[in-house]
Amino acid sequence: MRMKKVFWAFLALLTLAWALTTWLGWQPPKDVPGTWWWQLRHHGLYLTGVWSVGMMSLIMLLALRQPWQERLVGGLDQVYRLHKWAGIAAAVAMALHYWGFKEFLGDGLKATFGRAGKPARDAVLSFATDWRGLGKDVGEWAMYALLALIVLTLWQKLLPYKPWRKLHRVMPVLYLAAVFHTVALMPLSLWAAPMGVLMGALLAVGSGAALWSLLGKIGQARQYSARIDSVQLLGQHAGQDPLEVLCALPSDWPGHHAGQFVFVQFDGAEGPHPFTIASAPGACGQAADGAERLRLVIKPLGDYTQQLHQQLHVGHSVRIEGPYGRFDGQGVQERQQVWIAGGVGVTPFIALLEARQPGAPAAQAGAAPAVLHYCTRAAAKDGVLPRIQALAASAQPPVELIVHDAEKNEYFRPQDLLRHGKALDIWLCGPAGLGQAVREQAQREAGWHLHQEAFQLR
Ligand SMILES: Cc1cc2nc3c(=O)[nH]c(=O)nc-3n(C[C@H](O)[C@H](O)[C@H](O)COP(=O)(O)OP(=O)(O)OC[C@H]3O[C@@H](n4cnc5c(N)ncnc54)[C@H](O)[C@@H]3O)c2cc1C
Question: What positions does the domain FAD-binding FR-type occupy (predicted)?
Fold first, then answer.
């Protein structure tokens, strides 16, 4: 919800700055046929350009994974959602800018009215007067590449995650090309305040972020060298059942809150993967050398995680970046707290349950009783379930555990949540389908507040 507000507020800010600057410098045009159409085309071209490069600057800024961004929108998964929606908005504005206003409307007006009412070519920044041709070409090619990358991001079946992630790294280069296009072609009149000040700040911050990304510096300040202290298979079948990995942390680890996640790099060639910290602070005890430990529960959901059991061994070094996220399972006291976990989406709830154990160092002040719905494929073979049952049994404030066992056709149905009351705070972590079903029901129920931890960052 906060993410949507930030998105619309940013779009409104860009539009307002453009409208004020355009209005302050506006001269009524000569009244020849087609003038007003040409004016519409002229201003539409610039407004869509401002939207597009403004949104791209926001995308670059959000890629920095800064703590203040999490506070603003409520967690890193929400920062990535905003990053994605800003990408979609930039693509739509870019398509309107080029095909809508420049090509389609420009050609149509030329054919209908001729060039008589067309505004004269705008003056640009003095140092950019010779950049016009190059600025246009660079902008056009960057636009094709950006649109192709945005389609590949949204249409996930076209390209698997790993090659997509490598390709996504060229985004900062394309952004810098868009900055060049803007500096070369944005009219001098729009560089006046307030648009000029806003655009100057956005291009400077966005370019800094793009260079930071190209230098591989993003997240570096929050990276820690840890080591594996224990690896255990939670079940019978390696490569199918989850692995429990305990990591011994360095002394400068800043600590975490129950429900947060980290990016974990077991292998330099593979790169970091996001995993929830499936333990409350201080709940995993210490390694032999006194180092604090945290727990990861990793389900083999893809090529890499399926062969992790062969790779990981005690003493193996791990790079951990974080912690990130604000999935704390604590809503408003007056509402019933409902937790919903699907499969390995139970990991943040393990941490939240541990934080509710008597004497836990990270006891949650002011926490309310909760109901946990846990959806599992087969309760009898679920290696994580016994721990969840034990933790729920002794949780304070209490947590009622309801297990939905698919093997026994005990499926979870969102409408069953109505029996918990009308005012619900729902905390959900699980597969996309489960999230979609609960979101659809939540849209029909005025008193439901849904907080979803997205297990997908693309
Ligand atoms: C916030 C968050 C918390 C998570 N917590 C857990 C957890 O506690 N336990 C658990 O088992 N799984 C967790 N996951 C999912 C886990 O990250 C993926 O299952 C894992 O990265 C898959 O890697 P793969 O190469 O084996 O699979 P692939 O088949 O390559 O990928 C499967 C899917 O995993 C995601 N993914 C893959 N690689 C990455 C990456 N480097 N960065 C981001 N996403 C990636 C993509 O959506 C991809 O489509 C979490 C994901 C997120 C976003």
Answer: 221-330
Which tokens is 112 given? 């209908």
- Cα–ligand 1 centroid distance for 352 (angstroms): 21
pLDDT in tens, 232-263: 999 889 999 999 999 999 999 999 999 999 99
Query: In this structure, how many other beta carbons lie within 10 angstroms of the beta carbon of residue 229?
Result: 22
Is a pLDDT exceeding 80 seen at residue 455? Answer: no
Query: What's the pLDDT tens digit per position in 51-63?
Result: 999 999 999 999 9
Rounded Cα–Cα distance for residues 401 and 422 (Å): 20
Tell the residue nearest (CA) to atom 49 of ligand 1. Answer: 161
- Mean pLDDT, the chain, rounded, equals 93
Cα 152 to ligand 1 centroid, rounded to whole Å: 18
The phi, psi pair for 57, rounded to 5°, reads -65, -40
Measured from CB, residues less than 6 Å from any atom of ligand 1 are 77, 161-162, 261, 271-276, 278, 297-299, 301-305, 344, 347, 455-458
> Taking 80 as the threshold, does the pLDDT of residue 120 lie above it?
yes
Which secondary-structure segment (H or E) carries 76? helix 76-95
Look at residue 29 and tell me whether its pLDDT is greater than 80: no
- β-pair partners for 275: 262
